[in-house]
Amino acid sequence: MTTRRDLLGRIRDQIRWDIVVIGGGATGLGTAVDSASRGYSTLLLEADDFARGTSSRSTKLIHGGVRYLAQGNLGLVREALHERGVLLRNAPHLVHRMDFLVPAYSLGELAYYGVGLKAYDLLALGSSLGGSRPVGRREALRLAPTLSPRRVHGGIVYADGQFDDARFAIALVRTLLGLGGVALNGVSVAGLVKEGGKVAGVEAVDGETGETFRVFAKAVVNATGVEADTLRGVDEPRASRSMAPSRGSHVVLDRSFLPGDSAVMIPKTDDGRVLFAIPWRGKVLLGTTDTPVDQTVREPRPSAAEVGYLLDHASRYFARKLTADDIRSTFAGLRPLLGKGGEGRTASLSREHAVFVSDSGLVTIAGGKWTTYRRMGQDAVDRAAGVAGFPLRESRTQSLRLHGWAEDRVEGPFTTYGSDAPELQKLVAENPEWGEPIHPALPDLKVEVIWAVRHELARSVEDILARRTRGLFLDAKASIEAAPAVASLLAGELGFDEGWEGAQVESFRDLANGYLPRL
Protein backbone atom coordinates (compact mmCIF):
# COMPACT_ATOMS: atom_id res chain seq x y z
CA MET A 1 0.00 0.00 0.00
CA THR A 2 1.47 3.36 -1.07
CA THR A 3 0.42 6.19 1.25
CA ARG A 4 0.32 9.92 0.71
CA ARG A 5 3.08 10.25 3.31
CA ASP A 6 5.26 7.89 1.26
CA LEU A 7 4.70 9.93 -1.90
CA LEU A 8 5.46 13.22 -0.17
CA GLY A 9 8.65 11.61 1.06
CA ARG A 10 9.60 10.80 -2.52
CA ILE A 11 9.23 14.47 -3.46
CA ARG A 12 11.41 15.56 -0.54
CA ASP A 13 14.08 12.98 -1.37
CA GLN A 14 14.06 13.25 -5.16
CA ILE A 15 14.52 16.91 -6.05
CA ARG A 16 15.27 16.32 -9.74
CA TRP A 17 12.95 14.57 -12.17
CA ASP A 18 12.99 13.96 -15.89
CA ILE A 19 9.42 15.17 -16.44
CA VAL A 20 6.99 16.97 -14.14
CA VAL A 21 3.34 17.01 -15.25
CA ILE A 22 0.96 19.65 -13.88
CA GLY A 23 -2.68 18.53 -13.84
CA GLY A 24 -4.33 15.28 -12.76
CA GLY A 25 -7.14 14.99 -15.26
CA ALA A 26 -7.30 12.70 -18.28
CA THR A 27 -4.58 14.54 -20.22
CA GLY A 28 -2.14 14.90 -17.35
CA LEU A 29 -2.55 11.31 -16.24
CA GLY A 30 -2.18 10.04 -19.79
CA THR A 31 0.99 12.11 -20.20
CA ALA A 32 2.48 10.90 -16.91
CA VAL A 33 1.71 7.25 -17.63
CA ASP A 34 3.29 7.53 -21.09
CA SER A 35 6.36 9.22 -19.62
CA ALA A 36 6.86 6.68 -16.84
CA SER A 37 6.29 3.77 -19.21
CA ARG A 38 9.22 5.00 -21.32
CA GLY A 39 11.47 4.95 -18.26
CA TYR A 40 11.56 8.69 -17.55
CA SER A 41 11.37 9.63 -13.88
CA THR A 42 7.94 11.22 -13.65
CA LEU A 43 6.08 13.35 -11.10
CA LEU A 44 2.45 14.43 -11.49
CA LEU A 45 0.98 17.17 -9.30
CA GLU A 46 -2.75 17.89 -8.98
CA ALA A 47 -3.94 20.89 -6.97
CA ASP A 48 -7.29 19.35 -6.10
CA ASP A 49 -8.21 15.70 -6.68
CA PHE A 50 -7.61 13.44 -9.67
CA ALA A 51 -10.30 14.04 -12.32
CA ARG A 52 -11.87 16.72 -10.09
CA GLY A 53 -12.77 18.87 -13.10
CA THR A 54 -13.98 18.02 -16.58
CA SER A 55 -12.52 14.51 -16.51
CA SER A 56 -15.19 13.24 -14.11
CA ARG A 57 -18.05 15.09 -15.83
CA SER A 58 -18.11 13.59 -19.32
CA THR A 59 -20.93 11.78 -21.09
CA LYS A 60 -19.13 8.51 -20.19
CA LEU A 61 -18.47 7.57 -23.82
CA ILE A 62 -15.38 6.23 -25.56
CA HIS A 63 -16.31 6.98 -29.14
CA GLY A 64 -15.26 8.36 -32.49
CA GLY A 65 -17.82 11.14 -32.40
CA VAL A 66 -20.71 10.89 -34.84
CA ARG A 67 -21.09 14.68 -34.71
CA TYR A 68 -17.52 15.16 -35.97
CA LEU A 69 -18.26 12.79 -38.81
CA ALA A 70 -21.16 15.04 -39.82
CA GLN A 71 -18.75 18.01 -39.69
CA GLY A 72 -16.44 16.20 -42.10
CA ASN A 73 -13.58 15.82 -39.61
CA LEU A 74 -12.67 12.34 -40.76
CA GLY A 75 -9.14 12.41 -39.38
CA LEU A 76 -10.32 13.06 -35.83
CA VAL A 77 -13.00 10.37 -36.08
CA ARG A 78 -10.53 7.82 -37.45
CA GLU A 79 -8.01 8.58 -34.70
CA ALA A 80 -10.68 8.37 -31.98
CA LEU A 81 -12.04 5.08 -33.29
CA HIS A 82 -8.53 3.64 -33.29
CA GLU A 83 -8.06 4.80 -29.70
CA ARG A 84 -11.42 3.29 -28.79
CA GLY A 85 -10.04 -0.09 -29.81
CA VAL A 86 -6.84 0.48 -27.80
CA LEU A 87 -8.82 1.33 -24.66
CA LEU A 88 -11.09 -1.70 -25.02
CA ARG A 89 -8.01 -3.92 -25.17
CA ASN A 90 -6.00 -2.21 -22.43
CA ALA A 91 -8.81 -1.64 -19.92
CA PRO A 92 -11.64 -4.14 -20.54
CA HIS A 93 -12.68 -3.83 -16.87
CA LEU A 94 -13.42 -0.14 -17.43
CA VAL A 95 -14.51 0.16 -21.06
CA HIS A 96 -17.23 -1.94 -22.66
CA ARG A 97 -19.28 -2.04 -25.83
CA MET A 98 -22.75 -0.48 -25.88
CA ASP A 99 -25.39 -0.50 -28.62
CA PHE A 100 -26.97 2.81 -29.65
CA LEU A 101 -30.28 3.25 -31.45
CA VAL A 102 -30.72 6.22 -33.75
CA PRO A 103 -34.49 6.48 -34.31
CA ALA A 104 -35.66 7.45 -37.78
CA TYR A 105 -38.97 9.14 -38.56
CA SER A 106 -39.02 8.68 -42.33
CA LEU A 107 -37.48 6.53 -45.06
CA GLY A 108 -35.22 9.44 -45.93
CA GLU A 109 -33.86 9.67 -42.40
CA LEU A 110 -33.36 5.92 -42.29
CA ALA A 111 -31.29 6.04 -45.47
CA TYR A 112 -29.35 9.15 -44.42
CA TYR A 113 -28.39 7.82 -40.98
CA GLY A 114 -27.65 4.41 -42.44
CA VAL A 115 -25.12 5.82 -44.93
CA GLY A 116 -23.47 8.00 -42.30
CA LEU A 117 -23.06 5.19 -39.81
CA LYS A 118 -21.70 2.86 -42.48
CA ALA A 119 -19.01 5.48 -43.03
CA TYR A 120 -18.44 5.43 -39.25
CA ASP A 121 -18.00 1.64 -39.48
CA LEU A 122 -15.49 1.96 -42.32
CA LEU A 123 -13.40 4.55 -40.47
CA ALA A 124 -13.00 2.11 -37.58
CA LEU A 125 -10.97 -0.14 -39.87
CA GLY A 126 -9.52 -2.93 -37.68
CA SER A 127 -11.12 -1.52 -34.52
CA SER A 128 -14.73 -2.18 -35.50
CA LEU A 129 -17.17 -3.27 -32.81
CA GLY A 130 -19.47 -4.76 -35.42
CA GLY A 131 -21.28 -3.12 -38.29
CA SER A 132 -24.27 -0.83 -37.94
CA ARG A 133 -27.63 -2.20 -39.08
CA PRO A 134 -31.09 -0.91 -39.91
CA VAL A 135 -34.04 -2.04 -37.78
CA GLY A 136 -37.76 -1.76 -38.31
CA ARG A 137 -40.28 0.03 -36.16
CA ARG A 138 -41.05 -2.98 -33.96
CA GLU A 139 -37.39 -3.70 -33.23
CA ALA A 140 -36.66 -0.02 -32.55
CA LEU A 141 -39.44 0.11 -29.96
CA ARG A 142 -38.27 -3.15 -28.42
CA LEU A 143 -34.77 -1.74 -27.97
CA ALA A 144 -36.11 1.55 -26.57
CA PRO A 145 -39.63 0.77 -25.32
CA THR A 146 -40.12 4.23 -23.79
CA LEU A 147 -39.61 6.03 -27.10
CA SER A 148 -42.76 7.79 -28.21
CA PRO A 149 -44.16 5.45 -30.90
CA ARG A 150 -45.62 8.38 -32.82
CA ARG A 151 -44.06 8.56 -36.30
CA VAL A 152 -41.21 6.14 -35.50
CA HIS A 153 -40.37 4.46 -38.79
CA GLY A 154 -37.42 2.40 -37.62
CA GLY A 155 -33.82 3.18 -36.85
CA ILE A 156 -30.15 2.37 -37.14
CA VAL A 157 -28.27 0.45 -34.46
CA TYR A 158 -24.53 0.98 -34.09
CA ALA A 159 -21.95 0.19 -31.42
CA ASP A 160 -19.62 2.43 -29.42
CA GLY A 161 -17.82 2.30 -26.09
CA GLN A 162 -18.90 3.30 -22.59
CA PHE A 163 -16.78 3.78 -19.45
CA ASP A 164 -16.71 5.33 -16.00
CA ASP A 165 -14.48 8.38 -16.41
CA ALA A 166 -13.42 8.96 -12.80
CA ARG A 167 -12.75 5.26 -12.17
CA PHE A 168 -10.64 5.22 -15.34
CA ALA A 169 -8.63 8.16 -13.99
CA ILE A 170 -7.95 6.27 -10.75
CA ALA A 171 -6.78 3.27 -12.77
CA LEU A 172 -4.30 5.59 -14.50
CA VAL A 173 -3.06 6.82 -11.10
CA ARG A 174 -2.50 3.24 -9.98
CA THR A 175 -0.79 2.42 -13.29
CA LEU A 176 1.56 5.39 -12.91
CA LEU A 177 2.49 4.38 -9.36
CA GLY A 178 3.07 0.83 -10.55
CA LEU A 179 5.50 2.14 -13.17
CA GLY A 180 7.54 3.90 -10.50
CA GLY A 181 6.14 7.37 -11.03
CA VAL A 182 4.61 9.62 -8.39
CA ALA A 183 1.12 11.14 -8.51
CA LEU A 184 -0.07 13.43 -5.73
CA ASN A 185 -3.43 15.13 -5.31
CA GLY A 186 -3.85 18.16 -3.08
CA VAL A 187 -0.48 19.62 -4.16
CA SER A 188 -0.68 22.84 -6.16
CA VAL A 189 1.90 24.51 -8.36
CA ALA A 190 2.46 28.04 -7.07
CA GLY A 191 4.96 29.06 -9.73
CA LEU A 192 7.54 28.00 -12.26
CA VAL A 193 11.26 27.75 -11.51
CA LYS A 194 13.41 29.28 -14.23
CA GLU A 195 17.14 29.19 -14.83
CA GLY A 196 18.61 31.33 -17.57
CA GLY A 197 15.13 32.14 -18.84
CA LYS A 198 14.23 28.48 -19.23
CA VAL A 199 11.68 26.51 -17.21
CA ALA A 200 13.64 24.25 -14.87
CA GLY A 201 10.98 23.09 -12.44
CA VAL A 202 8.07 24.17 -10.24
CA GLU A 203 7.30 25.58 -6.83
CA ALA A 204 4.77 23.25 -5.18
CA VAL A 205 2.64 23.56 -2.04
CA ASP A 206 0.99 20.75 -0.09
CA GLY A 207 -2.59 21.88 0.46
CA GLU A 208 -2.96 19.90 3.68
CA THR A 209 0.10 21.10 5.58
CA GLY A 210 1.28 24.18 3.69
CA GLU A 211 4.70 22.59 3.18
CA THR A 212 6.50 23.94 0.10
CA PHE A 213 8.71 22.07 -2.32
CA ARG A 214 11.04 23.24 -5.04
CA VAL A 215 11.09 20.51 -7.66
CA PHE A 216 13.47 20.55 -10.60
CA ALA A 217 12.77 18.87 -13.94
CA LYS A 218 14.30 18.60 -17.37
CA ALA A 219 10.84 19.20 -18.85
CA VAL A 220 7.59 20.55 -17.40
CA VAL A 221 4.25 19.73 -19.04
CA ASN A 222 1.21 21.98 -18.57
CA ALA A 223 -1.79 19.60 -18.73
CA THR A 224 -4.29 21.71 -16.83
CA GLY A 225 -7.23 21.45 -19.25
CA VAL A 226 -9.42 24.53 -19.40
CA GLU A 227 -6.89 26.32 -17.15
CA ALA A 228 -4.02 25.82 -19.60
CA ASP A 229 -3.97 29.49 -20.59
CA THR A 230 -3.59 30.53 -16.95
CA LEU A 231 -0.30 28.68 -16.56
CA ARG A 232 0.83 29.79 -20.02
CA GLY A 233 0.23 33.35 -18.86
CA VAL A 234 2.42 32.79 -15.79
CA ASP A 235 5.16 31.60 -18.11
CA GLU A 236 4.64 34.25 -20.80
CA PRO A 237 2.33 37.13 -19.78
CA ARG A 238 1.72 38.03 -23.43
CA ALA A 239 0.86 34.49 -24.54
CA SER A 240 -2.17 34.41 -26.83
CA ARG A 241 -5.34 32.70 -25.68
CA SER A 242 -5.62 29.13 -26.93
CA MET A 243 -8.79 27.87 -25.22
CA ALA A 244 -12.48 28.41 -25.98
CA PRO A 245 -14.16 26.44 -23.18
CA SER A 246 -17.79 25.43 -23.32
CA ARG A 247 -20.08 23.98 -20.68
CA GLY A 248 -21.62 20.59 -21.24
CA SER A 249 -24.48 19.83 -18.86
CA HIS A 250 -26.20 16.55 -18.02
CA VAL A 251 -29.16 15.32 -16.01
CA VAL A 252 -29.47 11.88 -14.42
CA LEU A 253 -32.82 10.06 -14.38
CA ASP A 254 -34.17 6.83 -12.95
CA ARG A 255 -33.63 3.70 -15.03
CA SER A 256 -37.35 3.49 -15.78
CA PHE A 257 -36.92 6.33 -18.26
CA LEU A 258 -34.96 3.98 -20.55
CA PRO A 259 -35.15 0.30 -19.57
CA GLY A 260 -33.13 -2.23 -21.54
CA ASP A 261 -29.47 -2.30 -22.44
CA SER A 262 -29.40 0.01 -25.48
CA ALA A 263 -28.70 3.74 -25.48
CA VAL A 264 -30.51 6.22 -27.72
CA MET A 265 -28.91 8.95 -29.80
CA ILE A 266 -31.08 11.78 -31.12
CA PRO A 267 -29.06 13.37 -33.96
CA LYS A 268 -30.95 16.67 -34.21
CA THR A 269 -31.19 19.25 -31.44
CA ASP A 270 -31.70 23.00 -31.51
CA ASP A 271 -28.02 23.87 -30.98
CA GLY A 272 -26.63 21.42 -33.53
CA ARG A 273 -25.49 18.81 -31.04
CA VAL A 274 -26.68 15.26 -30.63
CA LEU A 275 -28.67 14.18 -27.57
CA PHE A 276 -27.77 10.97 -25.77
CA ALA A 277 -29.89 8.94 -23.35
CA ILE A 278 -27.52 6.33 -21.92
CA PRO A 279 -27.95 3.58 -19.31
CA TRP A 280 -25.22 4.09 -16.72
CA ARG A 281 -24.76 2.42 -13.33
CA GLY A 282 -28.44 1.76 -12.77
CA LYS A 283 -29.53 5.23 -13.93
CA VAL A 284 -29.98 7.03 -17.25
CA LEU A 285 -27.62 9.81 -18.28
CA LEU A 286 -29.16 12.52 -20.48
CA GLY A 287 -26.90 15.02 -22.24
CA THR A 288 -25.42 17.19 -23.35
CA THR A 289 -25.48 20.93 -23.99
CA ASP A 290 -22.90 23.26 -25.51
CA THR A 291 -22.75 26.69 -23.88
CA PRO A 292 -19.71 28.96 -24.45
CA VAL A 293 -18.25 30.39 -21.25
CA ASP A 294 -15.96 33.38 -20.79
CA GLN A 295 -14.60 32.38 -17.39
CA THR A 296 -13.70 29.03 -15.89
CA VAL A 297 -14.90 28.10 -12.41
CA ARG A 298 -14.00 25.29 -10.04
CA GLU A 299 -17.57 24.01 -9.82
CA PRO A 300 -19.56 24.69 -13.01
CA ARG A 301 -23.32 24.32 -12.63
CA PRO A 302 -25.95 23.55 -15.26
CA SER A 303 -28.16 26.58 -15.78
CA ALA A 304 -31.92 26.29 -15.40
CA ALA A 305 -32.17 26.93 -19.13
CA GLU A 306 -29.82 24.03 -19.93
CA VAL A 307 -31.69 21.62 -17.67
CA GLY A 308 -34.98 22.73 -19.23
CA TYR A 309 -33.46 22.28 -22.70
CA LEU A 310 -32.48 18.67 -21.97
CA LEU A 311 -35.84 17.79 -20.46
CA ASP A 312 -37.70 19.46 -23.31
CA HIS A 313 -35.75 17.65 -26.02
CA ALA A 314 -36.08 14.29 -24.29
CA SER A 315 -39.82 14.84 -23.88
CA ARG A 316 -40.14 15.41 -27.62
CA TYR A 317 -38.85 11.93 -28.43
CA PHE A 318 -39.87 9.83 -25.43
CA ALA A 319 -43.37 8.97 -24.28
CA ARG A 320 -42.75 10.33 -20.79
CA LYS A 321 -43.09 14.04 -20.10
CA LEU A 322 -40.13 14.90 -17.87
CA THR A 323 -40.17 17.35 -14.98
CA ALA A 324 -37.69 18.38 -12.30
CA ASP A 325 -39.13 15.67 -10.04
CA ASP A 326 -37.66 13.03 -12.37
CA ILE A 327 -34.09 14.29 -11.92
CA ARG A 328 -31.78 12.53 -9.48
CA SER A 329 -28.70 14.65 -10.15
CA THR A 330 -27.42 17.33 -12.51
CA PHE A 331 -23.80 18.09 -13.36
CA ALA A 332 -21.72 20.11 -15.79
CA GLY A 333 -18.16 20.10 -17.09
CA LEU A 334 -16.11 22.58 -19.11
CA ARG A 335 -14.76 21.23 -22.39
CA PRO A 336 -11.16 22.30 -23.11
CA LEU A 337 -11.85 23.24 -26.72
CA LEU A 338 -9.13 24.79 -28.83
CA GLY A 339 -10.19 28.27 -29.90
CA LYS A 340 -10.19 29.63 -33.44
CA GLY A 341 -9.58 33.31 -33.20
CA GLY A 342 -12.15 33.68 -30.44
CA GLU A 343 -15.01 33.48 -32.94
CA GLY A 344 -17.68 30.95 -33.75
CA ARG A 345 -19.98 28.73 -31.77
CA THR A 346 -18.26 26.15 -29.60
CA ALA A 347 -20.52 23.46 -31.03
CA SER A 348 -18.63 23.89 -34.30
CA LEU A 349 -15.20 23.51 -32.70
CA SER A 350 -13.63 20.06 -32.87
CA ARG A 351 -12.05 17.99 -30.11
CA GLU A 352 -8.62 17.97 -31.72
CA HIS A 353 -5.59 18.59 -29.55
CA ALA A 354 -2.40 20.58 -29.93
CA VAL A 355 1.00 20.78 -28.22
CA PHE A 356 2.63 24.18 -27.70
CA VAL A 357 6.21 24.82 -26.57
CA SER A 358 6.98 28.30 -25.25
CA ASP A 359 10.28 30.12 -25.68
CA SER A 360 11.13 29.15 -22.11
CA GLY A 361 10.46 25.46 -22.85
CA LEU A 362 7.11 24.99 -21.08
CA VAL A 363 5.22 22.22 -22.90
CA THR A 364 1.44 22.70 -23.02
CA ILE A 365 -0.96 20.00 -24.19
CA ALA A 366 -4.44 21.39 -24.87
CA GLY A 367 -7.76 20.36 -26.37
CA GLY A 368 -8.79 16.79 -26.98
CA LYS A 369 -11.22 14.48 -25.22
CA TRP A 370 -11.19 11.35 -23.08
CA THR A 371 -11.17 8.96 -26.04
CA THR A 372 -7.89 10.37 -27.34
CA TYR A 373 -6.23 10.95 -23.96
CA ARG A 374 -3.57 8.28 -24.62
CA ARG A 375 -2.51 9.77 -27.95
CA MET A 376 -2.44 13.23 -26.37
CA GLY A 377 -0.10 11.95 -23.69
CA GLN A 378 2.14 10.34 -26.29
CA ASP A 379 2.39 13.57 -28.30
CA ALA A 380 3.10 15.62 -25.16
CA VAL A 381 5.90 13.31 -24.05
CA ASP A 382 7.43 13.29 -27.53
CA ARG A 383 7.70 17.09 -27.36
CA ALA A 384 8.86 17.10 -23.74
CA ALA A 385 11.61 14.63 -24.56
CA GLY A 386 12.78 16.96 -27.31
CA VAL A 387 12.81 19.94 -24.94
CA ALA A 388 14.75 17.92 -22.36
CA GLY A 389 17.21 16.61 -24.94
CA PHE A 390 16.45 12.97 -24.18
CA PRO A 391 17.16 10.28 -26.77
CA LEU A 392 13.61 9.66 -27.98
CA ARG A 393 12.15 6.39 -26.71
CA GLU A 394 9.05 5.00 -28.37
CA SER A 395 5.75 5.18 -26.55
CA ARG A 396 4.64 1.90 -24.96
CA THR A 397 1.08 2.84 -24.05
CA GLN A 398 -0.61 1.45 -27.14
CA SER A 399 -0.21 -2.02 -25.64
CA LEU A 400 0.10 -1.13 -21.96
CA ARG A 401 -2.52 -2.85 -19.81
CA LEU A 402 -3.92 -0.50 -17.19
CA HIS A 403 -4.08 -1.33 -13.51
CA GLY A 404 -6.87 -3.80 -12.82
CA TRP A 405 -6.74 -5.41 -16.28
CA ALA A 406 -8.54 -8.73 -16.22
CA GLU A 407 -9.01 -11.10 -19.13
CA ASP A 408 -12.57 -11.89 -18.06
CA ARG A 409 -15.00 -9.18 -17.00
CA VAL A 410 -15.60 -9.31 -13.24
CA GLU A 411 -19.32 -9.32 -12.53
CA GLY A 412 -20.94 -7.96 -9.40
CA PRO A 413 -20.41 -4.82 -7.33
CA PHE A 414 -16.66 -4.62 -8.00
CA THR A 415 -16.72 -4.70 -11.80
CA THR A 416 -14.66 -1.55 -12.32
CA TYR A 417 -11.94 -2.79 -9.96
CA GLY A 418 -11.01 -5.63 -12.30
CA SER A 419 -8.24 -7.79 -10.88
CA ASP A 420 -8.46 -5.95 -7.55
CA ALA A 421 -11.98 -7.33 -6.96
CA PRO A 422 -10.79 -10.38 -4.94
CA GLU A 423 -8.97 -8.07 -2.54
CA LEU A 424 -12.15 -6.10 -1.87
CA GLN A 425 -14.04 -9.35 -1.39
CA LYS A 426 -11.38 -10.44 1.12
CA LEU A 427 -11.86 -7.21 3.10
CA VAL A 428 -15.60 -7.89 3.26
CA ALA A 429 -14.94 -11.41 4.50
CA GLU A 430 -12.76 -9.97 7.28
CA ASN A 431 -15.36 -7.35 8.23
CA PRO A 432 -18.88 -8.22 7.00
CA GLU A 433 -20.18 -4.77 7.98
CA TRP A 434 -18.10 -3.33 5.14
CA GLY A 435 -20.21 -5.35 2.72
CA GLU A 436 -23.23 -3.15 3.48
CA PRO A 437 -24.34 -0.38 1.09
CA ILE A 438 -23.33 3.16 2.01
CA HIS A 439 -26.96 4.09 1.23
CA PRO A 440 -30.00 2.05 0.09
CA ALA A 441 -30.36 4.15 -3.10
CA LEU A 442 -26.68 3.89 -4.12
CA PRO A 443 -24.87 0.87 -5.62
CA ASP A 444 -21.66 1.26 -3.62
CA LEU A 445 -20.51 -0.61 -0.52
CA LYS A 446 -18.72 0.58 2.60
CA VAL A 447 -15.66 -1.47 1.70
CA GLU A 448 -15.12 0.83 -1.30
CA VAL A 449 -14.58 3.72 1.11
CA ILE A 450 -11.93 1.73 2.96
CA TRP A 451 -10.28 0.70 -0.30
CA ALA A 452 -10.30 4.25 -1.65
CA VAL A 453 -8.46 5.55 1.41
CA ARG A 454 -5.93 2.73 1.54
CA HIS A 455 -5.18 2.37 -2.17
CA GLU A 456 -6.57 5.33 -4.14
CA LEU A 457 -5.39 8.43 -2.23
CA ALA A 458 -8.91 9.55 -1.27
CA ARG A 459 -8.83 12.26 1.40
CA SER A 460 -12.37 13.65 1.71
CA VAL A 461 -16.04 12.77 1.58
CA GLU A 462 -16.18 14.50 -1.80
CA ASP A 463 -13.33 12.36 -3.13
CA ILE A 464 -15.31 9.26 -2.14
CA LEU A 465 -18.85 10.20 -3.18
CA ALA A 466 -17.98 12.12 -6.33
CA ARG A 467 -15.10 10.17 -7.86
CA ARG A 468 -14.05 6.92 -6.12
CA THR A 469 -17.72 5.98 -6.10
CA ARG A 470 -20.19 8.01 -8.18
CA GLY A 471 -22.97 8.66 -5.70
CA LEU A 472 -23.03 12.43 -6.20
CA PHE A 473 -23.57 11.98 -9.94
CA LEU A 474 -26.13 9.20 -9.56
CA ASP A 475 -28.36 10.62 -6.83
CA ALA A 476 -27.43 13.90 -5.16
CA LYS A 477 -30.02 13.62 -2.37
CA ALA A 478 -28.96 10.08 -1.47
CA SER A 479 -25.29 11.10 -1.47
CA ILE A 480 -26.05 13.89 1.02
CA GLU A 481 -27.74 11.33 3.26
CA ALA A 482 -24.76 8.96 2.89
CA ALA A 483 -22.17 11.61 3.78
CA PRO A 484 -22.16 11.09 7.60
CA ALA A 485 -21.52 7.34 7.26
CA VAL A 486 -18.76 7.96 4.72
CA ALA A 487 -17.18 10.64 6.93
CA SER A 488 -17.15 8.24 9.89
CA LEU A 489 -15.39 5.54 7.86
CA LEU A 490 -12.89 8.07 6.50
CA ALA A 491 -12.12 9.49 9.93
CA GLY A 492 -11.50 6.00 11.28
CA GLU A 493 -9.01 5.25 8.51
CA LEU A 494 -7.26 8.64 8.51
CA GLY A 495 -7.25 9.19 12.27
CA PHE A 496 -9.39 12.33 12.36
CA ASP A 497 -11.83 13.37 15.09
CA GLU A 498 -15.57 14.11 15.19
CA GLY A 499 -14.97 17.79 14.46
CA TRP A 500 -13.31 16.84 11.19
CA GLU A 501 -16.22 14.53 10.38
CA GLY A 502 -18.75 17.30 10.93
CA ALA A 503 -16.81 19.77 8.78
CA GLN A 504 -16.56 17.19 6.00
CA VAL A 505 -20.30 16.50 6.04
CA GLU A 506 -21.14 20.19 5.98
CA SER A 507 -18.71 20.90 3.14
CA PHE A 508 -20.04 18.03 1.09
CA ARG A 509 -23.66 19.04 1.71
CA ASP A 510 -22.90 22.54 0.41
CA LEU A 511 -21.35 21.04 -2.73
CA ALA A 512 -24.05 18.43 -3.34
CA ASN A 513 -26.89 20.93 -3.06
CA GLY A 514 -25.65 22.32 -6.36
CA TYR A 515 -26.31 18.94 -8.01
CA LEU A 516 -29.99 19.00 -7.09
CA PRO A 517 -32.28 20.07 -9.96
CA ARG A 518 -32.86 23.77 -10.57
CA LEU A 519 -35.66 24.88 -12.90
Detailed description of the structure:
The chain is an alpha+beta fold. The protein folds into 3 domains: 4-54 and 167-241 and 347-399, FAD/NAD(P)-binding domain; 95-163 and 244-334, D-Amino Acid Oxidase, subunit A, domain 2 (D-Amino Acid Oxidase, Chain A, domain 2, 2-Layer Sandwich), CATH 3.30.9.10; 415-513, Alpha-glycerophosphate oxidase, cap domain (Helicase, Ruva Protein, domain 3), CATH 1.10.8. The chain is built from 16 helices and 18 strands. Strands 3, 4, 5, 6, 11, 12, 13, 14, 15 and 16 form a 10-stranded mixed sheet that branches. Strands 1, 2, 7, 8, 9, 10, 17 and 18 form an 8-stranded mixed sheet that branches. Strand 1, helix 2 and strand 2 form a beta-alpha-beta unit.
In short:
The protein is an alpha+beta fold and 519 residues long. Helices cover 36% and strands 22% of the residues.
Average pLDDT metric: 94
Total domains, how many? 3
CATH superfamily heading of the largest domain = FAD/NAD(P)-binding domain
Please report the distance between the alpha carbons of the first and last residues: 45 Å
Measured by DSSP, the beta-strand proportion falls in: 15-25%
**Spatial extent as radius of gyration:** 23 Å
Q: What's the count of strands?
A: 18
How can the largest sheet be summarized?
10 strands, mixed
Architecture per CATH nomenclature, i.e. the level-2 architecture of the largest domain: 3-Layer(bba) Sandwich
> What is the class of the largest domain in the CATH system?
Alpha Beta
Low-confidence stretches: 341-349
Structural class: alpha+beta
How many individual helices? 16
From the 3D structure, determine the CATH topology of the largest domain.
FAD/NAD(P)-binding domain
Tell me the helix content. Answer: 25-40%
Shape: globular
